[in-house]
Amino acid sequence: MALNGKTAVVTGAAMGIGKAITEILLQNGAKVALLDWNETAGKSLKEALDKQYGQENTLFFKCNVESEEQIKAAFQKTVETFGGIDILCNNAGIMNETEWEKTISINLVAVVRVTYLALEHMNKLAGGRGGVMVNTASIAGLLPVRCCPVYSAAKHGVIGFTRAFAATSTGAGYGIRINAVCPSYVRTDLYSNIYSSLGPFCHLALSVEQCEETGVINPSEVAECVLQLVTDETKNGEALLVKYGEKKYMTFPVLTF
User: What is the pLDDT of residues 128-144, one digit of tens each?
Assistant: First the structure.
């Protein structure tokens, strides 16, 4: 998929991985709607992007991905302004092992919610243009992580939903590809505050020194993988692991029910 003339929606777009995804999509010719609950960071980023790419190429919406009403409104305004939606990046996420229900709500339930609301605009069977979705999962969705069992469970769910919905879309003829990117440690605010997010399991986490030895990647490296999943039209139902010094597509049993 060439990105010139395409419209993307990115959740959790104001900082970290979401910011990097927004920037790489704009660099490659897409228009981008930025969704984030952090209004200050979102408006500041849009102002900076306007100077570089032109104010006509971005929109910002203060948006809580737990709110169906806010997501619907943001999608509708994006369609009215840019003419449709071609790309969705479900990136919003938190880590909070103490408030575990909120972790599941934002990291998994909201991914399903946003996907289905975007489907209303993208589905070729409903008059949409089709397109591609990329969900930000995690290496914690590929293996059990003892210091964050709820976060790990939610990210496993994201990968399962991504793979199943890819098969659903193909079988139903939605015209939409969907993939997941699975980063390891990424230099973001979540990484910087990781110990305060682990609650009763913080003593089980690797030390900062161990994390640095293992290798911490930059948000731009994750964004490059997202771009690959967006542009490579052969990729559907994939989970792309990205960690320090390595990128690889995961293999799973080939069984579909």
Answer: 999 999 999 999 999 99
